C-alpha cells in the first residue's frame, strides 16, 4: 500500500472519493427473487495512529456462517436504504454510535451462500474504535485490524473449496488477529484495491459463481 495510505488522513481522503464512484450492481435479473437484500458496513477509523477496519466473529450458535469472520451487517428492512440498514445493523451488533458514522459510498455488490444479495457500504468512524463491543448474541468478538496489515500481499492466498458440488476459489487474508475468508475477504480486498487506486472488477466472477451455485440446487 502506498505510504500516504498508511496514514489516517490519507485513507480518509481517498475514501472521500468513493462519493463520486458508481457502485456496480448485480443485474436484477441474475439474482433470484428469494434472495434477501442485505448490507454490510466496511467501517474504517483511526486506531493507534493507523487506519483500521472493524471486523466481527460470528457466534458459533448462528445457523448461517457460524464462527466466521464477518463485517457488521444484515438484512435491509422494508423502507430502509442499504446505508441505513448497514448502520442500524452495526449499531445492534457492535455498539457503534450512529452519529459518529460518516457514510462515504458503496463498493460493488455481491452475494452470499446464505442467499443474500449484499450491498457493501463504506463508512468512516469518528469515535473511539476501542469502545466497540459484541452488542448482540450474533457476535462473539470484535476485531480491529490495521489496513496496512490487510493490504500486505504476503498475507493473501486463494483457497479452493467445494460446497454442494460447486468449486469456489475463496480469497483468504491471514492477519495476526484473525483469518478473513470468503465473501468478507473478497469485499475487504475490494476496499484495499480502491485505496491503492485500483479496481478489481469482480462482478463477472461473482455472477459466474452465482450461476454455478444456482445450477447445483
Provide a concise account of the structure shown:
The chain is α+β, with helices and mostly antiparallel strands and 217 residues long. Helices cover 24% and strands 34% of the residues.
List the helices and strands and how they pair.
Layout: H1 8-16, E1 36-47, E2 50-58, E3 69-70, E4 73-75, H2 82-94, E5 101-106, E6 110-112, E7 116-125, E8 139-146, H3 147-150, E9 156-163, E10 166-174, E11 179-181, H4 182-195, H5 203-215
Parallel strand pairs: 1-7
Antiparallel strand pairs: 1-2, 1-4, 2-3, 2-8, 5-7, 6-7, 9-10, 10-11
List keywords for this structure.
5 helices, 24% helix, single chain, 217 residues, 3-stranded antiparallel beta sheet
State the helicity in percent bands: 10-25%
Report the biggest beta sheet as strand number plus sense, adding barrel if it closes. 8 strands, mixed
Helix count, DSSP H or I runs of 4 or more residues: 5
Order of helices and strands: HEEEEHEEEEHEEEHH
Overall pLDDT score:
93
Task: Please state the structural category.
Answer: alpha+beta
Q: Please tell me how large the radius of gyration is.
A: 16 Å
How large a portion of the residues is in β-strands, by DSSP E? 25-35%
Query: Termini, distance in Å?
Result: 40 Å
Low-confidence stretches: none
Would you write up a description of this structure?
This protein has 217 residues and is of the alpha+beta class. It has helices at 8-16, 82-94, 147-150, 182-195, 203-215; strands spanning 36-47, 50-58, 69-70, 73-75, 101-106, 110-112, 116-125, 139-146, 156-163, 166-174, 179-181. Strand 1 (36-47) and strand 2 (50-58) form a beta hairpin. The chain is 24% helix and 34% strand. The radius of gyration is 16 Å and the shape is globular. Strands 1, 2, 3, 4, 5, 6, 7 and 8 form an eight-stranded mixed beta sheet that branches. A three-stranded antiparallel beta sheet has the order 9-10-11. The model has no long low-confidence stretch (mean pLDDT 93).
Amino acid at each position: 500500500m502506498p505510504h500516504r495510505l498508511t496514514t489516517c488522513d490519507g485513507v480518509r481522503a481517498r475514501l472521500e472519493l468513493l462519493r463520486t464512484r458508481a457502485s456496480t450492481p448485480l443485474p436484477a435479473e441474475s439474482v433470484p427473487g428469494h434472495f434477501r437484500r442485505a448490507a454490510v458496513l466496511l467501517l474504517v477509523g483511526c486506531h493507534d495512529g493507523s487506519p483500521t477496519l472493524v471486523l466481527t466473529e460470528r457466534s458459533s450458535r448462528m445457523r448461517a456462517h457460524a464462527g466466521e469472520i464477518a463485517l457488521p451487517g444484515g438484512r435491509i428492512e422494508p423502507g430502509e436504504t442499504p446505508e441505513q440498514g448497514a448502520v442500524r445493523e452495526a449499531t445492534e451488533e457492535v455498539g457503534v454510535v450512529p452519529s459518529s458514522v460518516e457514510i462515504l459510498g458503496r463498493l460493488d455488490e455481491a452475494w452470499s451462500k446464505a442467499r443474500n444479495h449484499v450491498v457493501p457500504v463504506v463508512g468512516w468512524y469518528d469515535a473511539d474504535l476501542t469502545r466497540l463491543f459484541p452488542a448482540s448474541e450474533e457476535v462473539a468478538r470484535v476485531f480491529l485490524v490495521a489496513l496496512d496489515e490487510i493490504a500486505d500481499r504476503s498475507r493473501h492466498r486463494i483457497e479452493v473449496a467445494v460446497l454442494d458440488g460447486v468449486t469456489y476459489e475463496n480469497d483468504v487474508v491471514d492477519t495476526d488477529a484473525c483469518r478473513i475468508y470468503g465473501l468478507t475477504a473478497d469485499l475487504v480486498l475490494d476496499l484495499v484495491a480502491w485505496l491503492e487506486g485500483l479496481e478489481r472488477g469482480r462482478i463477472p466472477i461473482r455472477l459466474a459463481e452465482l450461476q454455478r451455485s444456482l445450477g447445483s440446487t
